[in-house]
Amino acid sequence: MNGKPSSPVLRGLGASNSARLLEPWDYFRSPVTGGTQDNTPLKYLQMDAPRPKYRVHREYRVQYGTPVQVVAGDKVSVGRDDVEYPGWKWCTASNGCEGWIPAELLAQEGGEAIVLQEYSSQELAVEPGDEVEVEDERRGWLRVRNARGQLGWIPASHVCL
Question: Same domain, yes or no, for 58 and 129?
Answer without folding.
Answer: yes
